[in-house]
Amino acid sequence: MEVCYQLPVLPLDRPVPKHVLSRRGAISFSSSSSLFGAPDPRQLSQRRGAISYDSSDQTALYIRMLGDVRVRSQVGFEPERRSSHPYLCIDFRTLHSEYGPRSSVSIIPIRSRLSCGSLSADSGTEKRVHRLLSFQRYLHSSRLLRGIPQQIPLHILDEDYSGQARCMLEKVGNWNFDIFLFDKLTNGNSLISLTLHLLNQYGLVDLFQLDMVRLWRFLVLVQEDYHNDNPYHNSVHAADVTQAMYCYLQEPMLSKSLTSYDILLGLLAAATHDLDHPGVNQPFLIKTDHYLARLYRNTSVLENHHWKSAVGLLRETGLFSHLPAEDSLNMERDLGSLILATDISQQNDYLSRFRTHLDQDSLCLSNGSHRHFVLQMALKCADICNPCRPWELSKQWSEKVTEEFFQQGDIERKHKLEVSPLCDRETNTICNIQIGFMTYVAEPLFGEWARFSDTRLSQTMLGHMGLNKASWGGLQQEQTAVSEEAELSTADPDAGESRSKEIPQGSRES
Question: What's residue 481's pLDDT?
Answer without folding.
Answer: 87
